[in-house]
Amino acid sequence: MTRRRDASIVRRNLSIQSYRENEMNQSVHRLGVSEARLVKRALKLKPCDQGDLDAAIREIDEIFGLDDVSLDECGWKLNVAYDASRTCIDCVEEALVNNGVQLKDNWWTRFKREHYKFVDQNVKDNANQEPWSCH
Known about the structure:
Elements: H1 2-24, E1 38-44, H2 50-61, E2 66-72, E3 77-83, H3 89-98, H4 107-128
Antiparallel strand pairs: 1-3, 2-3
Helix pairs in contact: 2-3
């Protein structure tokens, strides 16, 4: 009997500890970024000049609603996280084009861009709707 009680106390203490760790590990987002509307995107880029790429990343980093931007230089992959109710993939693409950086032009990249645009518009539309329930 005491072993069961001890085991349940240990389990309860572990669950309280993991709850506290999760509370402490909650990420802090930039101003204007909602966790519920945060989307992460990966864009493949054509190889280009490093100066143009740095300028594009700086411009993307200044977009309101953007949470994170990073570059995987090995695969020329730009990783972007933003609040889809505040900005969209078009703003990121515009910043790239303004600085002379081009996206890869293959069917997979075109497919992903169109999917990203659809999801971004869906998130934006749902953010403006008042939630309802039939219960």
